[in-house]
Amino acid sequence: MPHLLLPFILVVVVLTLTPGPDMVLVLRNGSRGGSRAAWWTGLGCCAGIAVYAAASALGLAAVLAASATAFLVIKLLGAVYLVHLGVRALWHSRRASSAAAAAATATSPQAAVVRRWSAFRQGLVSNLLNPKIALIFLTLIPQFVSPGEPALLTTGILAATFLALAVLWWRVFSLAIGGLGRVLARERVRTAVERVSGVVLIGLGVRVALTANR
What we know:
Layout (H helix, E strand, L loop, with lengths): L1 H16 L3 H38 L1 H7 L1 H31 L1 H4 L12 H13 L2 H9 L11 H29 L1 H4 L2 H24 L4
């Protein structure tokens, strides 16, 4: 595995940096609650990855991948959840816009808009309802397990590497959002992020629902 670790890391970096529902969700929560909300959303995403990593090691992810019905149910639930988050974002942007005068002075209370547990839960549920993460562990990781290696140990190391890179990325991303705090504190900017995020999340939800199971 040592000679395959660097290629594995490069593939994971590409997958992690590819924009998707997680990035939109973290950005949306970060625009409302700052670096802390973004960080806790990212941690929730990582927790979802950890669950699928453990399921993959135990063979449960293979059961999900083999069952078209289970895959379809989780996929549709994930699509509904993304649309739900998108609608909430649009609704919140409407309320925020109507209360712009009152919110203009709310710079420090901004972080309280998104509670840590709420941000964490959104990231966690978003990943748990994404069965394609299970497929990543089933199709990607085995490609980097050499014949003769202890499969369980090697899979565990690769899964831990995947998770560590995800945690590192969300930490960097959340700090970057914190660096944009003054910009995101502007009501007009925050409302725009809410609206764009809402539309994108709804679009992603529809796309997930219409995507073929395999």
